[in-house]
Amino acid sequence: MKILEFDANNASERVLRGVYEVVAAYERDEVPGDEPAPFLYHLTRWQASCPEHDTRDRFYAEIDGEVVGFADIKRLPLDDPANMQIWLMVSPRHRDGGVGERLLAHVIDWGEQQGVERLAIDLASHLPDNDEVERLGMSHVLTLRRNRLLTRDIDWDLMDRWVQRSRERSSAEYELVRFETRVPDEHLEAWARIKCVMNDAPDGELEHEELIMTPEKWRAEEEETEARGDDYYAIGALHKATGEFAGFTDVFLPRHWQTHAWQEDTGVHHAHRGRGLGKWLKAEMARWLRADRPQIERIDTMNAGSNAPMLAINVEMGFRPLVDYKVWQAPTEVIRARLAAGTFAV
Q: How far apart are CA 74 and CA 59, in angstroms?
């Protein structure tokens, strides 16, 4: 078996399609009954350049010219250099054959050369791989929930009432500002500051450093969003007295998967909570998407299972649980020792 760096901009069609088949099989297992994301959706993501503060590195394994495994690695080298998060996928025909073990060992070797000390992996809770990573000495540190809203099920009268009540309650102090693709220069610094409110989201026992957003980092993220084939919609709740954003919500709209939308973040600064801004932002975004993107059939979002306030808003909107994920974490040295002892079988 060979393990090679995956460079989607120079890979052959055979390798690209082979990696996609591994990823598609993983997605079918992850969300039973769902069709995997289209090939072009993944290809544009693989080919996009990443900002230096939020990087992706990838490796694939092959046997006799067949792609049998894939590892996708996310790191925050500037803010959290000691951690990496991975998604490890093995072709169904080659599971339990040591492919995952060797691919994981390769990733750990590579990561430690980058200064990584801890590894995290999230797995759909129904997958048997959870037992394997526990045997590697990894700890379950956080539970995430992927929720889905079918646009045909949205109660638009309810959305209108949320908007009306919020305007009556808060429009004297706040106004909602829409951004498409790019945040204007005059709002950029305030936007970077409000994005940091996501550091308040529950993170369980996950050991990590916070991402500190800056105007420069945000501009780099906008460039990556464009390159990977996504459109971007955002709404900020501007506090009129200070010119600062009190809250925001944003979505990514894949051009190569136009029936699908990703609800990214929704957050309200602690000084402005209790005023209904979360519902106002979410309802206005739903109405914007209905008007501009009527082809969208579903909106998916991820929340920590312990994030009760946001989960309550999502449930009232019509989001329903799709998949729960367990996030596992351990020092690389612990995983390395368990691998050497032969306790991993994927």
A: 12
**Strand 118-124 relative to strand 66-76, pairing:** unpaired
Residue 208 to residue 142: CA distance in whole angstroms: 12
Kindly report the backbone phi and psi dihedral angles of residue 338, in degrees, each rounded to the nearest multiple of 5, phi listed first. -70, -40
Write down the residue that tokens 């990514």 correspond to: 252
Does the residue 345 lie in any domain? no
How many domains are contained in the chain? 2
Q: Do residues 239 and 203 share a domain?
A: yes
DSSP single-letter state for residue 256: T
The token pair that represents 184 in the structure block: 């204007």
Model pLDDT for residues 265-297, shown as the tens digit of each residue: 999 999 999 999 999 999 999 999 999 999 999
CB-count exposure of residue 35 (10 Å: 0-12, 13-18, 19+)? exposed
Q: Answer yes or no: do 313 and 334 share one domain.
A: no
**pTM score of the predicted model:** 0.94
For residue 303, give the nearest of 328, 324, 332, 275 by alpha carbon.
Answer: 324
Return the bridge partners of 4, or none. Answer: 60
DSSP 307: -
Amino acid at 157: D
Residue 346 lies in a domain: no
End-to-end CA distance of the chain: 15
pLDDT per residue as tens digits for the range 308-328: 788 889 999 999 999 999 999
Task: Examine the pLDDT at 345 and tell me if it is beyond 70.
Answer: no
Q: How many residues are recorded in the chain?
A: 346
What pLDDT score does 343 carry? 65
Domain holding 12, by residue range, is 2-146+326-340
Residue pair 289/261 in contact (Cβ under 8 Å)? The answer is yes
| Residues 132 and 175 both lie in one domain | no
